[in-house]
Amino acid sequence: MSADRKFLPRASAARQVEIPHVEARGLAAPSRHWPMAVWRTLGAGDRAVVGAGAVLGTILLALTIVTVRAGETPAHPKLQEFARNARLFSRVVPHVAELGVLPYAIFACACVLALWLVYLRLIWLVRGEQVDHRLVLAGAVAFGVVALTVPPVFSTDIFSYSIFGRLASVYDLNPYLTTAALGAPGDPVVPYLYWQWRHIPSPYGPLWTLVSEVVTLGRHATPLDLAIRFKVLALGAVLLDGWLIYVLVRRRWPEHAGWAYLAFAWNPMVLVEGVVTGHNDALILALVLVSAYLLLQARPYLAFAGLVASGLVKYSTLPLLAVVGPQFLMRASPSQRAGIVARLGAIAALLAVGAFAPYWGGLAVLMSTLDEPGRGVNNPVIVVGRWLIATLTEGHVRLGVPATVALSLAAFGAWQAWMLWRARWRKTWAIFDELALWATSLAVFLLLWPRIHTWYFVVPLGLALAAGPVYRRVYWGILLVSLLSYASYGL
């Protein structure tokens, strides 16, 4: 018996006894009662998956077929966003009910809460069972298709992607040196932007701007067209993420791969923040998981290039370079280290120069990308920490944003150095240990960074699941933190 069999849960062993019985039923003559016959062949875990999938799909469908009543103009900016985005998507699928703006906002939030309750119950219930990956894939595709039609009422980022892309593709302007209000005030996407984002240049990496420029091609594309394009891109990335997680876990723990696939692909944060609102974090995760797969195939420099590319989409994965680079050096002989540093530096420089080249206009381009913390502090951990410092010093010490960023980076750097030092003395080190370290590093970075959003946790969550059942505690910890991060919406 292989060493990996020790992770096989008792429920899975019971399922193995049932397999011949299931196959025998499958060979029976078709019956007019075949749906019930098929249902009886499913194990308890698969029945739970099918039942929960039906509920999750119904909740998502409810978000599609309910819209905002016409004619209402709420005073609160967030409610205005709910109303605009819901009405924009009301023409995609016929709706069966109309609500006032405030009741609709409450209904939408209640649906997200219901998604979480069903999901958490499901993954806890089947945590010790083998889950059929075909059921997970079918559900992921079905949920994704429905999510394409759900209005992105929880965030306006999909329209920010659109306007920064259109500044380059339609107006031939540099989105790092101009703003929507200055460069394209009459563009049909502008009314859908969060008011602050009308007056700032793009904070995203140049690789994402290149992608956005391609997605927004076509002068006459409507806001609805653009939103659906970005949603389709996000759905493709989510499906790829789930499959990569399944493939990575299956290599060592095939009996756990279906559960990991389910825990990611059916996660409400992945469905809502990934597909419904079309955030680019699903694409970032795909680049990081591909990098992990390349590392598994003994292609370290290609893996490093993938991580650099993910950081050129959005800065949030740059801490991974501070993990992988030192790891390469620690595992090399002293005579090899200079060459490794040179190659890693050349890879990072070539990719960065190539990505920034179409938009280069001086250091202002870099400052635009790095200026995100300057937009304020919304991390609940940092907010509480700054309040405690001000209280304990009786108001004599009040940390501004620059000081907060400096302290956050110093704390993260110290923690990162400690983790790398611990990893150095481990006798064995596999790709799954590496993935767990990546997931933990990103989660700690987000906990210490002044600005966070819930969807940022899609990346560490996916990495924790790809690390396999040995690191399942890491997954539960990141899941808890991601739930707590919803408090950042109000800050």
Structure, explained:
This protein is mainly α and 491 residues long. The protein is 66% helix and 1% strand. It starts with 9 loop residues before the first helix and ends in a 7-residue tail after the last helix. Strand 1, helix 4 and strand 2 (97-99) form a beta-alpha-beta unit. 42% of the residues are buried. The longest helix has 28 residues, at 223-250. It has a two-stranded parallel sheet.
SSE map:
Blueprint: H1 10-26, H2 34-41, H3 44-65, E1 66-68, H4 77-89, E2 97-99, H5 101-125, H6 133-148, H7 157-169, H8 180-183, H9 206-215, H10 223-250, H11 254-265, H12 268-276, H13 281-296, H14 300-313, H15 321-330, H16 334-356, H17 363-370, H18 380-392, H19 401-424, H20 431-448, H21 458-466, H22 472-484
Parallel strand pairs: 1-2
Helix pairs in contact: 3-5, 3-6, 4-5, 6-10, 6-11, 6-12, 7-9, 7-10, 9-14, 10-11, 10-12, 10-13, 10-21, 11-21, 13-14, 13-21, 14-15, 14-16, 19-20, 20-21, 21-22
Brief summary of the model shown:
The chain is mainly α and 491 residues long. The protein has 22 helices and 2 strands.
Name the features.
1% strand; 491 residues; mainly alpha; disordered N terminus; two-stranded parallel sheet
Beta-strand proportion: under 5%
Q: Strand order, biggest sheet?
A: 1-2
Largest sheet: 2 strands, parallel
Oligomer: single chain
Poorly predicted regions are 1-31
Share of helix, binned? 55-70%
How are helices and strands ordered from N to C? Answer: HHHEHEHHHHHHHHHHHHHHHHHH
| Total count of helical runs of at least 4 residues | 22
